[in-house]
Automatic annotation (TrEMBL):
This is SWIM-type domain-containing protein. The keyword Metal-binding applies. One of its GO terms (molecular function) is zinc ion binding. It comes from Nephila pilipes. Keywords: Metal-binding, Zinc, Zinc-finger. Residues 42-89 form the SWIM-type domain.
Length: 111
């Protein structure tokens, strides 16, 4: 996965967020979702029933850490967005296709 130097660099740049993000990557929690019309986003599974959504081309995440730390510039990004970047770079995202309606429901928190 990562060599020692890369792990140290991530830890230096992102502190404990890197460890948490790598845990999400190791547990294959990140899914790359493509809608039938071509919209793309990432779903990070928290547990069997809870997840967070990260948008593809922005730093946005639906997690509380994004609101309470990233927007206040206390953190550069949340663990979910870092996990998306790492999973994508390592080719470890699950690829999933959903209907546009399903993605809309996910974005408004009804699924």
């Amino acid at each position: 996965m990562l060599n020692g130097e890369e792990d140290i660099m991530l830890s230096f740049l992102f502190d404990f967020t890197a460890t948490q993000a790598l845990d999400l990557v190791d547990h294959r929690c990140v899914s790359h979702i493509v809608s039938s019309s071509g919209r793309e986003l990432y779903k990070i599974q928290r547990n069997a029933t809870e997840f967070h959504i990260c948008l593809k081309n922005s730093n946005y995440c639906t997690c509380p850490s994004f609101i309470f730390h990233v927007l206040k510039k206390e953190q550069f990004m949340c663990k979910h967005k870092l996990a998306v970047i790492l999973s994508s770079a390592m080719g470890l995202c699950k690829e999933v296709q959903y209907a546009d309606e399903t993605i809309t429901l996910m974005l408004v928190g009804e699924q």
